[in-house]
Amino acid sequence: MTANPPHGIYVHPAALCESDEVGAGTRIWAFAHVMQGARVGADCNVGEGSFLEAGSVLGDRVTVKNHVLIWNGVVVADEAFIGPCVLFTNDRFPRSPRMRLPVVAERYESADRWLERTHVDRGASLGAGAVILPGLSIGAYAVVGAAALVTRNVSAHRLVVGQPARPAGWACRCGQRRDTGCAWRACGQRYARRDETLEPLS
User: Mind listing the domains of the chain with CATH numbers?
Assistant: First the structure.
């Protein structure tokens, strides 16, 4: 695709885009590598030096900043923000598949035996340098702080920070940190708390 990308897709001359599944309006910047088998939606931005492995999926209008690593089994929904140097993982007990140990070689014969899938829901934001352990779900409009180590699921609208990441508040759809039960002046959205989640009110 790099030589002659379809109309409406920009691939920097120094990028490598092997995928045929890239949506209109998407921009792929220098030294990024999108493998064949990766799927990228429309109007996305894939920053310099980022890597999207076969089997990874980006929805529409996703922002991927520089030097992000997105592996097989990672699905990022529409309008999510993935900050610079965010690192996803997909194998909880990794070994080299080339190890001369039959039980290890057998494990890597099928992705079903090792691959743990991660889902980042709509509008979520992952701060710079965050590390996301495998098999987790990050809820809609959640915010993961810079350099956080995410070891458990993050509910919708939750703000988490630290290593390991712990709840530190809530985030509005507009991205502002907020308290529960009141409207944030930036956008006027109101929320109600339901157990450990935050739900927008109509």
Answer: 10-200 (2.160.10.10)
